[in-house]
Design goal:
The chain is an alpha+beta fold. Helix content is 19%, strand content 38%. The chain has 7 helices and 21 strands. A hairpin with a 2-residue loop joins strand 7 and strand 8. Helix 3 packs antiparallel against helix 6. The longest helix is centred in the last third of the chain and has 14 residues.
Length: 334
């Protein structure tokens, strides 16, 4: 069987930068196990599979997989998939995706898209910033010296907001995978989204890096599902009211510079709306040629055909197992 796919670079205005994404079209005939195996084959931070919707009022169902896990939502896969569908004449200026978190409105034009995210949920603060700093290979004062909390924030997918005092400190981050996994044990499924208000490009609001080696992603060059939470976090900890716009740089240390736009609507201290937007550039297209059934073992991972696919972890599709952390976005084994 043959399935069309497109490769797209997201949160960038030029190819070979930003965050890589594979978009598999008309994937209705693919089972979950097969989707997970394809995502592992592409080995990007995420791969999306576009199918007919199952929820009323949605135009497309979009399923999002990392090499190890299915996600309920993510930013750059939503933006990139919308740009591909618009370029093919299969998405209008305002479309609605069926994601794991539910119907998600997306506004799209040529080479750019904006997704709505959920109002923020502010979770627990990290009880031991010093241990987290050690896991990231920086001094504790780089975190505690900001005067800001290390806190979980979600606008659909939870991330741990990790403030770092200086740009130099962010550049020095070099996580120990095991230590970081232990430091994040109280935040299952969350990545560490580290940021400094010092930036490389004047006029931007934060310099960011995302680490989740315990989830199969050593570092991510652009994380749209974390940009919304960071915008909400900054809105709460700075003065302002009404529509507030933020722009973040990410991926520079990986050689894949990215620019993420996020906006929040804040009234009386309450955030009522969150959007994340950015540009994307299509890079390549092709066909997947697949057998109708998976062999019992695929790529050295036993039981792919009969093993039931990704495990559930903490109520969110979890790690499928095997492979260890991967460096994505051109920084590692791809």
């Amino acid at each position: 069987m043959r399935y069309a796919f497109h490769l797209v670079d997201v949160f960038t205005d030029r190819p070979l930068a930003g965050n890589q994404l594979a978009v598999v079209l008309d994937a209705d005939g693919l089972e979950t196990d097969r989707m997970q195996a394809i995502a592992r084959e592409f080995n990007f931070s995420e791969t999306t599979f576009v199918t007919a919707p199952t929820a009323e009022g949605c135009d497309w169902r979009v399923r999002i997989f990392t090499p190890l896990v299915e996600l309920p939502m993510a930013g750059h896969p939503t933006i990139g998939t919308a740009v591909v569908l618009e370029a093919l004449g299969r998405a209008s200026e305002r479309t609605v995706f069926e994601l794991g978190v539910g119907p998600t409105p997306v506004r799209v034009r040529a080479g750019w898209a904006e997704m709505e995210q959920q109002p923020p949920a502010f979770g627990m603060q990290h009880p031991d910033p010093a241990a987290l700093a050690a896991a990231l290979s920086i001094e504790a004062e780089e975190i505690t010296g900001t005067g800001l909390p290390v806190q979980s924030v979600s606008t659909g997918l939870a991330h741990l907001m990790v403030p770092v005092r200086s740009l130099a400190g962010v550049r020095r981050l070099h996580p120990d995978p095991d230590a970081l996994g232990a430091a994040l044990a109280l935040f299952p499924g969350a990545a560490a989204y580290c940021f400094s208000r010092e930036v490389e490009h004047p006029g931007l609001d934060a310099h960011c890096r995302m680490f989740a080696p315990h989830l199969g992603t050593a570092e991510d060059p652009a994380t749209g599902s974390a940009a919304g939470p960071l915008a909400c976090y900054l809105a709460v900890h700075t003065e302002g009211e009404g529509l507030r716009r933020f722009r973040f740089e990410q991926g520079i240390e990986m050689g894949r510079p990215s620019l993420l736009e996020a906006s929040v609507e804040q009234r009386g201290g309450t955030i009522t709306a969150v959007t994340v937007a950015g540009e994307a550039r299509r890079l390549a297209e092709g066909w997947l040629t697949l057998d109708k059934t998976l062999p019992r073992e695929v790529g050295g991972v036993p039981g792919e055909a009969g093993g039931g696919g990704p495990r559930e972890v903490g109520g969110v599709p979890g790690e499928a197992g095997g492979g260890g952390p991967r460096q994505v976005g051109g920084g590692g084994d791809r």
